[in-house]
Design goal:
Helix content is 47%, strand content 0%. With 78 residues, it is mostly helical. It has a domain of 30 residues. Keywords: Signal.
Length: 78
């Protein structure tokens, strides 16, 4: 009796595992939906004022200019 219960429990866990793994398989971006990511408001850095303030904070703290858009740390080694 315990062996049968153990098999059912394993089967239930296996079914649940397969269901969870396959549940998101249909999610994703379809080719006809990719234009939504190209919109300007979907950009990660669409707030120009925030970017300017972050750059100012960065070069004020680090003593460098250019911030995140230029390589190098201001030491002249790059």
């Amino acid at each position: 009796m315990m062996a049968i219960c153990g098999k059912w429990v394993k089967a239930k866990f296996l079914f649940l595992f397969v269901l969870l793994c396959g549940g998101c398989s249909t999610l994703g971006v379809q080719p006809w939906e990719r234009d939504q990511f190209a919109r300007e408001d979907m950009a990660l850095d669409n707030e120009k004022l925030d970017l300017m303030l972050n750059d100012h904070i960065y070069f004020s703290k680090e003593g460098t200019s250019g911030g995140r858009t230029q390589g190098g740390g201001g030491c002249g080694c790059n």
